[in-house]
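Thread: Modeling a multi-component assembly for a lab meeting

Hi all, long-time lurker, first post. My supervisor asked me to bring a structural picture of a complex we are working on to next week's group meeting, and I have zero experience with this. I have the sequence lines for every component (274 residues in total). Could someone generate the structure of the whole assembly? Inputs are pasted exactly as I received them:
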Amino acid sequence: MELQTAIERISELLDDGELETSNTSMRIPTALRDAAALAVKELGIAPSATALTTAALRATLEAVVMQAALDDHYERHPQARPDLGDLAIAAAELDGHPLAGQPGRLRQAAAEIAANHPDASPDDVLLWAEARALPAA
Amino acid sequence: MTYLVVLDCEAVQALRDPGHPKHRHVVSQAQVVANRKRRAVAIQIVVPTAVRVEAGWDRTSRAWVFPNRLRIADSPLDTASANTAAGIRDRTSVSVADSHIGAVIQSAPYSQITVVTSDPGDMRRVAGDKNITVAAI
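Re: Modeling a multi-component assembly
Sure thing. I ran the full set together rather than chain by chain. Output:
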């Protein structure tokens, strides 16, 4: 199956609202199973360990599908690929971060941090820009 | 924390068209959402269906293949949403699509709601008492 066809099929399956369920036999580490059961019982993070597993699996698959779509798009349209500065600005905007209105400062912070940390994340940039904005003690 | 990102008409159009001057900006925001999904953050992008109509987003059209692949869910204009949207439109005289965005905002059970929009003023008006983050494009 071609990659894009597989991605589209995964996406269709994720959208399928059918409530039919299947028993499945998966071997997972015992400690992980016990941790999930405890988190459900004591922390109430999901109605059941099955619901917790299902939600985590769905989130992972959604991330994979979304990233595959973005990667394919970047390949076709290289100019659409955001750099670290773009991503830091976008993260600040989505969060309503006080520096969202200062894109120049975020781009500068992105350039500085990328020089020493090529794998820096947009959140790293925000933190660095925030630290730089603090008045010197 | 649960996060909801709502797209307005121009955000949707910018996402579809690689030649749109705001394309890279909205793609950056989609990339940040993808990064966060990968980190198991509970974040979801939605498009109110009235926005889809205004933007011309037909999910069966090949012209919309890229937005279709980004796991952007429809928020339908059902009976309850239509009632809320009608009230918003009556009070504020905004467009049907913006009224639907307001209905989505007002009924969404999310901790943080961000609206990606080219019209921050109208978004704050349709949000009513609900606290939102506006990501202006």
